[in-house]
Amino acid sequence: MGPVEPTQPTLAGMPRVRSPRLAKERAVAAELPVARVCVDVQPAHLDRLFDYLVPADLDDAARPGVRVKVRFGGQDADGYLLSRHEQSEHAGTLTPLRRVVGEPVLTAEVARLARAVADHYAGTLADVLRLAVPPRHARVEAEQHEPAGPAPDAPRAVATAWTPYRGGAALLQHLVAGGSPRAVWTALPGPAGERWADAVAQAAAACVLSGRGALVVAPDARDVDRILAALASLGLPAGAPGGAVRLTADEGPAARYRAFLAARRGVARVVVGTRASAFAPVADLGLVVLWEDGDPLHAEPRAPYPHARQVLMLRAELAGCAALLGGFGRTVEAQRLLETGWARQVAADRAVVRERTARVRALTAVELAREGAAAAARLPAPAFAAMRQALATGPVLVQVPRAGYVPVTACARCHAPARCATCTGPLGLDAAGAVPSCRWCGRLATDWACRQCGGRALRSVRVGSGRTTEEIGRAFPGITVRASGSHAGGGVLDTVPDRPAIVVATPGAEPVTEHGYAAAVLLDAAVATSGEGLAVEPDALRRWLAAAALVRPATDGGQVLLVGDGAARPTQALVRWDPAGLAERELAERAALRLPPAVAMAAVTGPRQAVELVVGRVSAPGLAVLGPVPVTGPGATLDPDVRALLRVAPDAAPALARSLAQSLAVRSARREGGTLRTQVDPPEVL
DNA sequence: TCACAGTAACTC
DNA sequence: AGTTACTGTGAG
After folding, report:
1. How far apart are CA A121 and CA A316, in angstroms?
2. Which phi and psi (to 5°) does residue A560 adopt?
3. pLDDT tens digits, residue range A244-262?
4. For a 10 Å CB count at each end of chain A, is N or C smaller?
5. Whether residue A632 sits in one domain with residue A585
6. Is 60 exceeded by the pLDDT of residue A373?
7. What's the CA–C1' distance between A43 and B4, in Å?
8. What residue is closest to B9 (Cα–C1')?
């Protein structure tokens, strides 16, 4: 027989009368008897804190940050105890906590961060906490603390990896001195493509030297391991007390919770992990680092869809700590942080860039014109010749865009993505031969003209890539061909030997090689710069640079060939190795066109009526509502979902999020029905 | 008079 | 969301 909840009949307004039996069993804590709890429930209108009584027997265990079990609305629910108080604001009687589960998992700092993230994304605190705290693993929690092994030596924060960068040495000094600088860092290629990891590790070690903890977030487990290896060589080994810890989901729930607890208990000084670790409870946080902030893996796919960049920015502001955003490319979001003065630039001078990078050539249709029909071939003769030559001195990397991109329309002359003349949304073709229409506002694009070159002809970009490893292998008989990628037979390769071979990889799966590739060939540039997302051009450049960074410098004969007629601007940016320039131009253009991040946007997708009700209640200074328009999908149903876009100036973003959250609360209280998806800062504004 | 469905309101 | 309290209608 389970415990029966004692019900006490009370008259409204009358003092609460406890039966002696109840008082005996459930004496209340003498001090701070009120616990403020975030109850883990779905509905948006329940996104507030609820007060409970702390029974005397739970007084010790009921510390801020613990998980609790409570009675809520006639049923049992989980929750987090956020704080203890002497009194409650609640007029009615309070229910006692049922149980305290385990040790504290939420620090005050992370609880504040989670609230700020929920507010930014018009989501609920419970939803964010579900992302921030990994599932409990009782066995792991019961494990003994690591027997205090030999304490690691003080970390060495050799700044050598930062000397090539203007402002790099100063950044490190600032960190060691306990300061909180904020920087956008454009990384240079280096031997084995890993200098960047040494730089990240040195920044983290500098922070540890100042007596503070550090948090590093990378897109995938491979990058996490590279950073951990670099940290180990600086005297911050993974797994050792006072060292680093690997916080990823790929080694199972037990390992993840063990790492989480190591951070929470202060056993680890540096946490390195993937996107969810942006919420890791690092003690005395002094620095947050985000590597490759443009990688789509940094976008959380679960509601409220927070992006690691935004989480870490909020965290740096709330915790007053240092922030470092690094990558080979530069996102428009990072560019905006520079232009608003939020962060300072850390980048190498032009001369250093030239010294470190490979020779880059773009084999465009114009350059290949003299080849005639052969220009259409996917591996044109100059690329073939360059590969043959490079294979004499080392491995050659071939990057192939992942197939399966959405068809899109682009300018036939300059290949820039085609945009709506009215609202700057992307143009798409639903039926073959039809007039393209805007994916945002639905207008037909008759009489279209390219904003970049004035061209008047549209073309549909060919989709996907059928090029296979076998195809390339046939072109180079006798040469070893390795494939790396999630679709490749052998999966993703981490490293390849420093011997002549062809390595075919999809973006993000490029293996490193000790002395660098002799050459890289980036295929199907037109496919890489196609797609409907806003960030297609910086994204393409980011993927190209990531591959090009693995190639030896030009002084050692390294060369990069871009093949297949991509959009002009990212092509030029690659040839000049100028990611900052592309980001600058892209941000300026987005400001002119009122596109994010120069404006704030939110997307509401779902059944027409539900979308209209929610959007109809939203108000914010200067709010513009685009649509709703039917969302185009493969399954064209009878009654398709629609999407509306809400747009305001950046300084009205908090007001928009607040109003949107309020409208969603009304929706859930009224049970307006339908399944709705609300996204603030949608990563793919089609 | 009791039963039960539809609905309105609340959740510490 | 899930639960409980409260209307109103109908058969005995």
Report:
1. 17
2. -125, 130
3. 999 999 999 999 999 999 9
4. N
5. no
6. no
7. 29
8. A669
